[in-house]
Specification:
Layout lengths: L3 H14 L19 H17 L15 H29 L8 H12 L2 H10 L3 H17 L2 H14 L7 H43 L8 H7 L14 H5 L5 H4 L4 H27 L3 H13 L16 H15 L9 H13 L8 H15 L1 H6 L3 H14 L11 H20 L9 H32 L29 H10 L19 H7 L28
Helix pairs in contact: 1-2, 3-4, 3-6, 4-15, 6-7, 7-8, 8-12, 8-13, 8-14, 12-14, 12-20, 14-15, 14-20, 15-16, 16-20, 19-20, 20-22
Amino acid sequence: MYGDYEAQRHWLEITYHLPVRMWYKYDLQYWGLDYPPLTAYVSWIFGYIANKINPAWVALDSSRGIELPNSKIYMRATVLVCDLLIYLPALFYFATKSSLLRHRSIRARHVAFFTLLLQPALILIDSGHFQYNSVMLGLTCQAFNYFLEGQDLLGAICFVASLGFKQMALYYSPAVFSYLLGKCLLLGWKEGSAHLIRIGLVTVLSFIVLFLPFLYPSFPENLLPPIQRIFPFARGLFEDKVANFWCTSNVVFKWNRHFSASLLPKLATGLTAVAFMPTMWALLSPGIKGFGSMASLYHTEASVDGTENKKSRRPAPTVSLLAHSLFQCSLSFFLFSFQVHEKTILVPLLPVSLLMITSAPTVEGSDWEWGVLLNNVGCFSMWPLLRRDGLSVQYVSLLALWNYAIGHNPFRQKSLQALTLAVYSAIFVLHISELVISPPARYPDIFPVLNTLISGGVFGLAWLWSLKRLVELSWAMGSLGTQRSSAPSSLRMNSLSNGTRTKPLAVQEVFSSSIYGDNLATGGNGHNSQRHSVSPASSMVRRRNTSVLPPTREEGPSTASVVDLNEPSM
């Protein structure tokens, strides 16, 4: 009955008129509220404003099914307000301030910002489908920004807020947890334990603030309904035709016929955990192998320059793996977890888009090419939903505009040209077939099923690629131990040709080299760094057997390779 517009409008209605304890209990059969409390609080604010403009839009019960043009304009305006307040600032901060883009010119950073801003999948769902996914994604992006700067407490607050807005942010949680725990291990017993306690306290307090209206005066009676609604295990294994493992494989193997409804959630949970386990290991193993290395190295740095910096306020070296880990982890949830919706593809699209803009078409690793392909296929995977909502023209025009704006030409690609052309050809043939051929009566869902098979196949290949990249980057990083006898080649002192050792590099230079890419290619001074575009992930792979220590006078400047995109400094 009705659609997502009515669901969002109805939540404005019930949050404005009903007490908090009734929000997750009132008439659940009619679009009952099933998102975390922060969504409910935002709905209450917009419901209050809507009631001031026109009370008929949010009248309790009597407004059900109302679809006035003005009310739709208002609902779309609320989406834009959320974009302006949360999503756009987070993207702009990343594109203009992030250390991952410090080698780019100002013009290139602005292009990166608009590449993210014009992402067609999010625009189609949020503005065309009356959703607020940009709030969750914006808070996650800002948390990522803080982690890059070493401000883990602010990052934890933003990530809890993201979880408090939509439970889909849980798809990122294993990667975030592993990164923060791995950093605490690198800090050692004293500083690491203190930092872990601080993060834990901030996280717990943030959740308490979010759920405070449900904790008093009746606990836990008022807390149980939101939890039960947020985690809908009573629903089916998947919803509609979603391009994940369960729906795709269900074409040939009917899961519901072979497994009980109580066993399927457990099976999905176990398979999901196995799928994202490599992410956790990639972020935790450096901390285990290099336990306490950040503390000892920063102590050495402080003794050299005479200053004492807060160790926990520096990003861990593993932050260079975080974007890939967020993508691999969230895609694992999308492919294998329980009760996934088509719109959930937006969750892994955020980190792969961040990887895409920090890379370049000429840099090895295929981050750019995979980012473009997955954004396009992500839109295509939601085509049945978009077509049902009358967004066909918007779907075609936004995809064409975005690909034209970023200069995407599949015929000029390198590593993914064959796959990209094959996928685009299959998509084109399927769209044409839908226009000219009516589905047979025996198989009325043939076109959505084919859509699922094409999209699911691409997402499966992307998951394998994400594993490959994690292995490459983890291998490139190696152990982070500081002992000369056990540290990997990338963190040891090199021996000169005459057998003498170089002077140890200051810690910040070691970690910056691992995290952000060498600026030593310019002779160590970084004056010309804006003329180069370096993928930090790719540069790590290239530096596996190259010392990150500064060159001695005998050696001359480092010759770490970079990619010149001929971007003028501005």
